[in-house]
Amino acid sequence: MLLNQNDQSVCFAEVDPAFRRDVLTGLASRPRTIPARWFYDRAGSELFEAITALPEYYVSRTERALLCSVADEVAALAGPGRAIVEFGSGSCAKTPVLLSAANPSAYVPIDISRDFLWASARRLSHLFPGMPLHPVEGDFTRTLRLPSAIEDMPRLGFFPGSTIGNLLVPEAVDLLRTMAATLGSGSMLLIGIDRIKDPSLLLPAYNDAQGVTAAFNLNLLHRINRELRGSVPVDAFRHVALWNDDEARIEMHLEATRDVDFEIADGYFSMTRAETIHTENSLKYGPRDARVLLRAGGWSPFAAWEDPEKLFSLILATAGPDPSAPCLYQQVDALQNHAKLQPSQGFELQSAMST
Ligand code: SAH
Ligand code: AVI
């Protein structure tokens, strides 16, 4: 049952002023940086889907397999009748696993990539014909009003894919607090977070042999040319992925392979050879870091699972009593009590708390 959400939809005009502003200010600043959310026009979303199928990109298949093995447990812990609200739903590839196990009262996918959002919603409405489905086009970093149809339903937020890693820590904390405010008290959140691991595994995942990740990165320049009347010589840039160990993050950059001059929406830019535009961070978290992040964001983690190779974590959390409370550690007692609740696989909360 696919429902139009006329009161909530954010429809973007042909030229998104926020895209224009982020590109012009980002290219004028040093280091030059463009936020990763602008990767996801239709071509970018399609390229991301291709990335998820790459042999080097362990993230999606690992999370999917983990979700398959714990979905029933998540459903039991969350309890019946919740509306599932997915942040950055994209193609909703993992969603059916959770929907089948949790049998929710409604499903609300949220994404900025409009075409993908509606195409995925249509596909899901065929798979789950009786389930009320309310897509919301919008930026999840802003407080979104959820569809009035789910007003009285308890909520389970779903934020898979380690998309949280594309935000710096202060932004991630803000986002988690925004989510807590959007979902409301009594809500739960199931979040997928990629783990810190050996760079020999991380780097190929962001620099694959077929060049799909390079095409995904370079598509940002094509998008700028298409939507912002740009004259960026795309062939003068190359994709670079590196592991920043101090910050525990993969960084993606676009590096000029020669001196270049170009115009974008009446702005004039000059870059010298080897200068870069920083286009993405993908932060990786240790298990304890992830829980501290969640607590800082107003959530109390109470169950966590990892795959046998410890590549990826799924964490289930409840909205803290007061998402605007400033203290990170005030819920430690509650957390220790909850540590008795130990789901089957790889839940390290208890050992982490005692170290
Ligand atoms: N959840 C999917 C897709 C991850 S890709 C998975 O696990 O595979 C990241 C998704 O988040 C994309 O679909 C992108 O369009 C969306 N996205 C990124 N930034 C966003 C924002 N600020 N607001 C809403 N959606 C966003
Ligand atoms: C969506 N996000 C979590 C992906 C990631 O792994 O950071 C985006 C991506 N960038 C390059 N490959 C995949």
Can you offer a commentary on this structure?
The chain is of the alpha/beta class and 355 residues long. Helix content is 36%, strand content 22%. The protein has eleven helices and 13 strands. The chain has helices spanning 17-28, 42-52, 58-78, 95-102, 114-127, 169-183, 199-205, 212-227, 287-296, 332-338, 349-354, and strands at residues 32-33, 83-87, 106-111, 136-137, 155-159, 188-194, 237-244, 249-256, 260-264, 267-271, 276-283, 299-306, 312-319. A seven-stranded mixed sheet has the order 4-3-2-5-6-13-12, with helices on both faces. The chain has a four-stranded mixed sheet with strand order 1-11-8-7. β9 (260-264) and β10 form a beta hairpin. α2 packs antiparallel against α8 (212-227) and α3 runs parallel beside α4. The longest helix has 21 residues, at 58-78. The N and C termini lie far apart (49 Å). Mean pLDDT is 89; it is low at 4-13 and 323-355. Bound molecules: S-adenosyl-L-homocysteine and N,N-dimethyl-L-histidine.
Write down how many β-strands occur, each being a DSSP E stretch of 2 or more residues.
13
The proportion of residues forming helix, as a percent range, comes to 25-40%
DSSP helix count? 11
> Kindly, what is the distance between the CA atoms of the first and last residues, rounded to a whole number of angstroms?
49 Å
Multimeric state: single chain
Helix-strand pattern: HEHHEHEHEEHEHHEEEEEHEEHH
Overall form = globular
Topology of this protein?
Layout: H1 17-28, E1 32-33, H2 42-52, H3 58-78, E2 83-87, H4 95-102, E3 106-111, H5 114-127, E4 136-137, E5 155-159, H6 169-183, E6 188-194, H7 199-205, H8 212-227, E7 237-244, E8 249-256, E9 260-264, E10 267-271, E11 276-283, H9 287-296, E12 299-306, E13 312-319, H10 332-338, H11 349-354
Parallel strand pairs: 1-11, 2-3, 2-5, 3-4, 5-6
Antiparallel strand pairs: 6-13, 7-8, 8-11, 9-10, 12-13
The structure holds S-adenosyl-L-homocysteine (SAH) and N,N-dimethyl-L-histidine.
Residues 37, 40, 45, 48, 52, 60, 88-90, 93-94, 110-113, 139-141, 160-161, 163 line the site of S-adenosyl-L-homocysteine (SAH).
